[in-house]
Amino acid sequence: MSPPRLLIRPLLRPLLRPHLLRPIPIRTLTTTLPRAHTHLTPPPPGEGLKITFIDKDSTHHTFSVCEGDNLLDIAQEYDMEMEGACGGSAACSTCHVIVEDEGMYEKMEEPSDDENDMLDLAFGLTETSRLGCQVKMTKELDGLVVRLPSMTRNLQSSDFSQKK
Ligand code: FES
């Protein structure tokens, strides 16, 4: 009586298919440096635009930045308390800032409909509120002063679930 074929086949497989015995090449582990959220390039000496953030404790923080930098990137680069939950896609209101000077506010581009929709959800909305991620520094905005609101509203799906 011969042994069942099903038992012998796995034992013979390496002999029948020698290519399965090839050594598996060892791949080295490669790593890359972790990327920071922002990479703002400091402006050349004497060419920076000034922006001041007023934090929740009313402390003023002034930075020298480049034209084209947006307020969210600046705030996060300098560890100001601005969450930016949606990563700057105008889909939250956690980058809400209040422009201190109405004249400066008038120099900014009009907010888009998306930005206005999100601003409607912002905590402590004012006439000069903007989403920081949507405001880019320009020469006209040199000297801008913005206040960080005392709170931000970060809506999550759990906010809409029924509480027991
Ligand atoms: S970071 Fe979400 S709207 Fe600005």
TrEMBL record:
- List the keywords (alphabetical): 2Fe-2S, Iron, Iron-sulfur, Metal-binding
Enumerate the spans annotated as 2Fe-2S ferredoxin-type domain.
49-152
An example of a GO molecular function for this protein is: 2 iron, 2 sulfur cluster binding
* Cofactors that this protein relies on: [2Fe-2S] cluster
Q: Does the keyword Transit peptide apply?
A: no
Gene3D superfamilies (alphabetical): 3.10.20.30
Superkingdom = Eukaryota
Which InterPro entries does the record cross-reference, listed alphabetically? 2Fe-2S_ferredoxin-like_sf (IPR036010), 2Fe-2S_ferredoxin-type (IPR001041), Adrenodoxin-like (IPR001055), Adrenodoxin_Fe-S_BS (IPR018298), Beta-grasp_dom_sf (IPR012675)
Example of a GO biological process term: P450-containing electron transport chain
Q: Which GO terms describe its cellular component?
A: mitochondrion
- According to its UniProt record, which protein family does this protein belong to? Belongs to the adrenodoxin/putidaredoxin family.
Protein name, per record: Ferredoxin
Organism ancestry: Eukaryota, Fungi, Dikarya, Ascomycota, Pezizomycotina
